[in-house]
Amino acid sequence: MAQTINTNISSLTAQRNSARTQNDLSTSIARLSSGLRINSAKDDAAGLAISERFTAQIRGVNQAARNANDGISLAQVAEGGLGSVGNNLQRMRELAVQSANSTNSASDRAALQLEVSQLAAEIDRVATQTQFNGLNLLDGSFQTQQFQVGANAGQTVSLASIASARTSALGVYQGFSLQNQSIGTASNTAAALTVTVGSGSAIALGSVAVDAKAIAAAINGGNVAGLTATANATTVAAGTSASNGTTSGTSTFTVNGVAISIAGVAGAGGLSGNRANAVAAINAQSAATGVTASDTGSGVQLSAADGRNIVTSFAAGGFTSATVADFGLGATATTGSTVNVNYVAPTGTTGNVVFAQTAGFANSTAIAGTGTAIAAVDISTVGGANAALAAIDAALTTINSSRASLGAIQNRFSSTIENLATSAENLTASRSRIQDADFAQETANLARAQVLQQAGTAMIAQANQLPQQVLSLLKG
């Protein structure tokens, strides 16, 4: 290699290597001082982009968890307010039950009504003043709201509208209450029964006898939301006692398929005894027939408390020429009762509820506002107290339903928060693998770079001494 002075290649090489070592040393120091493998885009351009996206997701998820916690807080405030309303309604119901008792005078009931009025005022106060961050919750203005529980758009949980707790709204519901509805011509022959709610399809309730008890059971068993029915007691009016039999003996009176023998005495003198015999014989079989008998003083009345049909027939038998009148019984026939149908429509359900049964129960009723508002409750009379019980029960149903919904959404938010915490943990771990410095590796790199930097400095010094060798040539 030529001996030169102007160009020191060895020094340049040592300087270049020292500069590269200095960059490695600076990188290691930056990583160890920040704890990050990526401190700028030049460290890892793709890794930086990925880690920044992870950061956006992590921060979004953490904020979503805070949003869900705020949702729980809102639901708790609303549920607490509804709990207070429910307690006041329970007290109002207690007072209504007390007022309905005959031991209370008009002044007593007036005093009870004073407390009811104050309780209603307190319910209205809670309904209008229960707020969360300035948002009214219980006055009917809180409609379906969306809670952002994810890091990205559209990742929401809906909280349904909270029912109004104002006394002008409580106790009133969409639906209807039908009392003493005819079932048509009573018959034990089964016929298809259907119900259609609003614009929905007909729901088959089964093949049912034209019998109040059977129809009510079919309606209740149909699991149609908000629809219930009860059967009223079936009654066969008493006949008028008469003396038609010419020879004393035993007749057969059949009730709901059970033949019952009744001893009869001919002549007017046996009328009361014949009625007593009929009552005793029929009641003895009531477990089998579901029918009881009672003497009205001029005849025998039949009743079925559960609303089943009462089907009767008569054979004079040994009581020659006798008729049912000899025992004070009404004319033989198939006698049916009536049904009561109540419907509380789910939110958004409109139109009519239509029942259809061939030659049996048929009815079409519009879904509309019904019931008595709590604001209009007046227990100062027995009739008002009884009406108040129905209104308060409807109000309690509304309040309890809202509380159940709020409780369910709280549990859902809790589950959401748990899921978000898991997501944040996993996303953070993923970002760490890309972004964070490996201290074991970086300390090794630092030690290597420091040694190389020191060696490079020494070599530059050595290289700078090489031109001195030229002087020895000049001295010769």
From TrEMBL:
Coiled coil segments of this chain: none
UniProt region (Disordered), positions on chain: 1-23
GO cellular component, one term: extracellular region
Main location group: secreted
Keyword terms of this UniProt record: Bacterial flagellum, Cell projection, Cilium, Flagellum, Secreted
Keyword Lipid metabolism: no
Molecular function, one GO term: structural molecule activity
Location(s) in or outside the cell: Secreted; Bacterial flagellum
Sequence ranges assigned to domain Flagellin N-terminal in this UniProt record: 5-142
InterPro entries: Flagellin, Flagellin_C, Flagellin_C_sub2, Flagellin_N
Function: Flagellin is the subunit protein which polymerizes to form the filaments of bacterial flagella.
PANTHER family: FLAGELLIN
Family in the record: Belongs to the bacterial flagellin family.
Record protein name field: Flagellin
Annotated organism of origin: Piscinibacter koreensis
Source taxonomy: Bacteria, Pseudomonadati, Pseudomonadota, Betaproteobacteria, Burkholderiales
